[in-house]
Amino acid sequence: MFKSKARCKIATSIESELCDDSLNFFIIWIDKEGLIMSSNGKNDADKMAKERAQEQESYRLQCNQYVESGLQSNVTIQFLIDRLVGMGCAPPKGFIKCMDCGDKMAGGGFGVVEETVVESATLTEVAERAKVEQCHRTEEDLKKQLDAASQGKVKLRLLPEVFLCQQHLRNETHAHEAMVHELIHAIDLCRTKMDPLKNCMHMACTEIRAENLSGECDWMSELGSGRVSTFAGHGAECVKRRSALSVQANPNCKDNAKEYVEAAFDRCHRDTFPFDRHPNLR
Q1: Exactly one of 17, 161, 182, 222 is catalytic; which is it?
Q2: Residue 57 falls in the annotated catalytic set
Q3: I need a surface site. Which of 23, 46, 161, 179 has the fewest CB within 10 A?
Q4: Quick check: 80 and 180 in contact, CB under 8 A?
Q5: Which residues contact 226 (CB under 8 A, 6 or more apart)?
């Protein structure tokens, strides 16, 4: 299931919260991070580009260390990987990647969209979309794919892939929470005929489960970010808040995101599969 064909990629994510709540399931990549030309023109631009490349290399090395430590020593990550293997969805090599995500405040994301051409007239459009790297796709790019699918021009299928935004990871704990979050989506994609691109209830449910089981709504983390107004019930409110923001980024679900989350919440919040109980309960 996790073997992919040649495909057109678009970032679909369940992003890890950083400084604010501006996170989406489908990452709204505005554009590639540009270089501002000063009065010195090309020389300054070249210098900035070189400095940025060096900085990103440092971030990439640190991120790769986080991924390796997660795979080698984080029991929750190891458990989820083992379950994927046991379910017949063994992740391929390079399944988890560290990437330059530009200015978008996200910790990571999940999924690529396989786009199969039905009408030959759309070959050029699909080829143009394929030129844009996964992390720099926009909401408009996704909308074009969804529109093409609704018109019968292409067929879309969500394929699993996990990426971490290397420059936005606060620390190892944050990276590991992001990995758990994305692996929950991989579990859901493996065990069900989930179609979060078209079915907003599916999307809301997998978002609720990932937010709940990843530890990203940990009470202390929320307290440190100033989001705790009441102790009782705050965890559930955090899950709802983050899930709704993610669902809003899907053009098919945008207008009624909160309603979808509310409708799916009770059942999906109780669902701890593949864990016997919530992994953060001692």
Answers
A1: 182
A2: no
A3: 46
A4: yes
A5: none
